[in-house]
Design a protein that fits this description.
Two copies of one chain form a homodimer. The first copy, chain A, is α/β, with parallel strands linked by helices. Helices cover about 25% and strands about 25% of the residues of chain A. The longest helix of chain A has 14 residues.
């Protein structure tokens, strides 16, 4: 659906997810994640024969393996250099190192230097990426793609132009309590919610939902708690066990949270919640209109 | 395997998990969780014809539904009264209310009062349960089962005897960083670990593992971080994104955490980690000896 309305393709962190996306008919997949080890390189080689795959690297030690995979597949593999522009995760940490690695990619048999990639796009990212692209150009290398991403700041992506020419956002498709907290969406924009039943009402001020950490996950949120109950804005989920959500019941929410009632919970983090369920149920105007199988769930390898 | 070495049966929180256990041949299943709503009561009725099922309740409003399920199945359903002896989750909160509910259970067609249940077994649990059992006896009701549980305090379960005559422990089968922190096991007792690969080594003092919150979950631990790296005791996983584990590399662990190396991570909470994976791989003496399908994974309904 995203490709149909204009996305160039899809970004996956894991090879297993990329395999699922190619199985599902996506023809252009970016894996901004170092691919390490022979079993994964073999799977990459198999995938290269089936779709346009682009990968990223942050270390020259990865290049021989990627080169071998490309050679086995008989294709040229596009490679982006991952840059750490402030997150402190993976990525080379200076424009000079990025340029060095770009040159190493371009000099490796079977690999094609495609450009630079970062995540998300903190202050300083444009300066870093711009310096890297200019430095690469000085060595005759064209950074065709300069890619940043992240839902929380997606509305400001325009400020990254013209240096950045690709923006990767994922959570926007669903939104969640964290992207709402970041101002990227409103609570009513959130499309992925967890349907909860009040399974116990042991006290006037306490209700127990059947959604615990196996449904809502335990990702923290600055606002506290694992989720927001849409129908009970004066109440809060204060903590979760695996199968129990503890609700502090607000004054006006007593009836809404009676034993047996169902409510809608907006989780903190849509990504990990979708990964807990085998199916998503689709609802429009209060009616269930279908189900989606979460085929990339658990494809963590 | 647990039943083979003496367990009376198994405890599940969710009906879907109980269905899976019965499918797997377990003949005695306790569901200490209010079963709410007609769709679940229908599934319960179907299950009652297949195995010995015991449920718990903490509210008399649940009894008509359970009675209907038992009648449909043509069996008598054993019911425990859930007691909140300090956790503040579900359960009736005084012995007097427990006795009242026990009498209501005993007076409901198709239901058999079986006894009392709590979780875990905090200070005061024995007094509560003892008073409930004595009060029930005064009304001619025999609390055949008085059940407590929890891995962290399982070594002290003897102190609950003779009031408590059933103890439910689950995490002990695997152990995890939390049960080790509670003193219930040692790090070397932990049987469920996550195999991680160093996928990036962007700085001397920072490594990135391919195990993020989709593999280790985000359950907190008082000791901090989402897991312990067995082979790198001087290093710590400081945080996780969905697919990235950020490691602060200790002085002596530089080689152990080189790009491409594999390490063993003990997660904070085995229950939710097992729920993230479709398969567990079995290892003995460094060799893979088999795989288990996690058939109860995601059975959150």
């Amino acid at each position: 659906m995203q490709v149909d309305i204009g996305a160039a393709g899809i970004t996956c962190q894991k090879l297993g997810e990329a395999e699922t996306m190619v199985d599902g008919g996506i023809e252009d997949v970016l894996i901004p994640y170092n691919i390490v080890g022979e079993p994964k390189l073999e799977r990459l080689a198999a995938l290269l024969g089936r779709a346009r795959i682009t990968v990223s690297v942050d270390d020259a030690a990865l290049l021989p393996g990627l080169s071998g995979a490309a050679r086995r597949a008989g294709v040229e593999l596009g490679v982006l250099v991952e840059c750490d522009t402030g997150l402190g995760r993976a990525g080379v940490d200076t424009p000079m190192r990025a340029i060095e690695l770009a040159r190493a990619v371009a000099g490796t048999d079977g690999l094609r230097f495609e450009g630079f990639l970062t995540y998300p796009a903190p202050d300083g990212a444009v300066g870093f990426l711009s310096a890297a692209a200019e430095g690469a150009a000085a060595h005759g290398l064209d950074a065709k793609v300069v890619s940043a991403g992240g839902t929380p700041n997606m509305w400001a992506a325009g400020e990254l132009v013209p240096v950045v020419n690709e923006y990767r956002a994922g959570t926007y498709a669903f939104h969640d309590r964290k992207t709402v907290a970041a101002g990227a969406g409103r609570l009513e924009d959130v499309a992925l919610t967890v349907r909860a039943t009040v399974v116990s009402r042991p006290a006037r001020d306490r209700a127990i939902l059947d959604t615990g950490s196996k449904s809502l996950a335990s990702d923290p949120n600055p606002a506290g708690g694992p989720g927001t109950i849409v129908e009970a804005p004066g109440s809060s989920i204060v903590r979760v066990d695996e199968e129990h959500g503890y609700v502090s019941v607000g004054e006006g929410d007593g009836d809404t949270l009676e034993l047996g009632r169902q409510v809608t919970v907006v989780p903190n983090h849509a990504c990990v919640v979708a990964n807990l369920f085998d199916e998503l149920w689709l609802e429009r105007d209060g009616r269930i209109t279908g189900r989606w199988r979460v085929t990339a769930r658990g494809r963590s390898r």
